[in-house]
Write a structure and sequence with these properties.
By secondary structure, this protein is an all-alpha fold. It has one domain. The chain is built from nine helices and no strands. The N and C termini lie far apart (about 75 Å).
C-alpha cells in the first residue's frame, strides 16, 4: 500500500510539474507571437508608407540608431535582467520588437512582397516543426546547443569578413549554414524553455520575466532563420 501511495504521489508531482511547464511554455510562445506580430506590422507599415525610404535618404545617422537600438535593448534585457521589473522588461521587449520591425522594413526594398510572404510561411512551418521536436524529444540537446552557439559566433565573424570580400558564393554558404544552425537552435531553445518551466513557480514575477527572455530567444531564432532563408530563396526586385 505504501508503494502504491508513493507511486501515486510521484505521478501527481510529475503531472503538476508538467502542467506548470506547459503553462510557462504557452506564455513564452504567446509573448513571441506578440513580438512577431508587432515586428511584422511595423515592417509592412514603414515599407508601404515610404517612411523607411525617406529615413534612409534624409538621415543616415537616425537610420544607424534604428539599426543599433535593438541590439542595445537585447543587451539591457540580458545584463539588467535581475534589476528590471516585469513591466519594464516586457515594455523593452515590445519596443525592441517595434524597432526590429522598423529596420526589417528595408527587406521590402530588396525583395518582392510575394517572396517575403512565401519565405515567412516556410519559416513558420519549419519553426513549428522544430519547436514540436524540441518539446517532445527525450534526447538531451544540451551538447548540441553549445556547439550551435559557437557556430553562431562563427557565422557573425564570417559575415563581417564577407562585408569586405563581397563574395556572393560565400554569402550563399553562410546563409545555408545559418539555416542549419538556427533550425537546430529552435529545438534546443524550446527544450531549454520547457525545462525552465518545470523548475519555476508559475505566476511569480520571476517566472514572467523568464518567459519574456525565453520569448526573446525564440524570436531571435525565428527572425534569423527567416532572414537566412530569404537570402537563399527570396526573389529580388529587378
Amino acid at each position: 500500500m505504501n508503494d502504491n501511495l508513493s507511486n501515486f504521489n510521484q505521478s501527481f508531482s510529475e503531472a503538476e510539474i508538467s502542467t506548470t511547464s506547459n503553462a510557462f511554455v504557452t506564455n513564452v510562445f504567446s509573448y513571441m507571437t506578440l513580438a512577431l506580430v508587432i515586428s511584422g506590422v511595423a515592417a509592412w507599415w514603414f515599407a508601404q508608407s515610404g517612411l523607411i525610404l525617406q529615413l534612409i535618404e534624409t538621415s543616415s545617422i537616425l537610420m544607424w540608431v534604428v539599426m543599433l537600438a535593438p541590439l542595445a535593448m537585447v543587451l539591457i534585457m540580458n545584463f539588467a535582467f535581475n534589476k528590471l521589473s516585469f513591466p519594464a522588461l516586457i515594455t523593452i521587449f515590445i519596443a525592441y520588437s517595434f524597432l526590429t520591425g522598423m529596420s526589417l522594413s528595408t527587406i521590402f526594398l530588396v525583395y518582392t512582397s510575394a517572396a517575403i510572404a512565401k519565405v515567412f510561411l516556410i519559416t513558420a512551418g519549419l519553426f513549428t516543426t522544430m519547436a514540436v521536436i524540441g518539446y517532445t524529444t527525450k534526447t538531451d540537446l544540451t551538447k548540441m546547443g553549445s556547439i550551435l552557439r559557437m557556430a553562431v559566433i562563427g557565422i557573425v565573424i564570417a559575415m563581417v569578413v564577407n562585408m569586405f570580400m563581397q563574395s556572393s558564393k560565400m554569402d550563399y554558404v553562410i546563409s545555408c549554414i545559418g539555416v542549419l544552425v538556427f533550425t537546430g537552435l529552435i529545438a534546443y531553445d524550446t527544450q531549454k524553455i520547457k525545462r525552465i518551466g518545470a523548475g519555476v513557480e508559475y505566476g511569480t514575477a520571476s517566472a514572467s520575466k523568464l518567459a519574456v527572455m525565453g520569448a526573446l530567444s525564440l524570436y531571435l531564432d525565428f527572425i534569423n532563420l527567416f532572414l537566412f532563408l530569404l537570402r537563399i530563396l527570396g526573389g529580388r526586385r529587378d
